[in-house]
Backbone:
């Protein structure tokens, strides 16, 4: 702490790292799991980051429990967390065996992590989705869309895209994810999400949520 930092190598006007006292906890708004085939589930955590800062590697863990509160599956991973927004973290293909899932929890598992200030150009880059269509008539339901990189200068790499399907009561009925490995400035690409068997609920709305790797947007 030899300048304008608020702490040792963090905070202030000259340091790219934020101090822990500047950070609000990331909120898990809801987490659930959905059956996609016999004994296989997809899990989602719908989270909100209220900080004007990003995390490059944020480890997490899903835990799935049966009706008796017994832990029947766990799945860990890590994500980039962009600044200021709501994001969906999805894990697919979780094998749980014979007991159906009754409860799903989600936690970030590494603390503290390093929070970084992000240049405004990287922070404000957006992906726009259009031509969204859902085909429920096929034995394999499919959601398709077109994504466009709105930046005139930045290429995007390793963008994780989550899809949430909702029924008429605005309840989530299933989720999936895909990966867009590279997208040039102002470029568009078609994406698709599939489920291995017919859904038990009628889908009336869709939400497509990208997690942009702001550290690799250049």
Residues:
């Amino acid at each position: 702490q030899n300048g304008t930092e608020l702490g040792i190598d963090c905070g202030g006007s000259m340091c790219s790292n934020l101090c822990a006292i500047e950070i609000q906890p990331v909120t898990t708004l809801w987490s659930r799991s959905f059956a996609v085939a016999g004994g296989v589930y997809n899990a989602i955590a719908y989270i909100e980051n209220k900080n004007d800062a990003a995390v490059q590697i944020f480890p997490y863990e899903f835990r799935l429990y049966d009706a008796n509160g017994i832990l029947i599956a766990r799945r860990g991973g890590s994500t980039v967390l962009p600044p200021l927004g709501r994001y969906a973290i999805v894990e697919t293909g979780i094998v749980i065996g014979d007991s159906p899932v009754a409860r799903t929890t989600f936690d970030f598992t590494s603390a503290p992590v390093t929070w970084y200030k992000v240049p405004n150009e990287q922070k404000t880059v957006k992906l726009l989705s259009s031509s969204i269509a859902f085909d429920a008539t096929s034995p394999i339901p499919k959601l398709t869309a077109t994504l466009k990189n709105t930046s005139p200068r930045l290429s995007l790499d390793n963008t994780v895209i989550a899809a949430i399907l909702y029924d008429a009561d605005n309840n989530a009925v299933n989720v999936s994810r895909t990966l867009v490995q590279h997208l040039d400035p102002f470029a568009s690409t078609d994406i698709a999400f599939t489920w291995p068997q017919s859904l038990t609920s009628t889908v009336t709305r869709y939400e497509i949520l990208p997690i942009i790797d702001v550290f690799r947007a250049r």
Observations:
- The helical segments are 120-124.
- The chain has a mean pLDDT of 92.
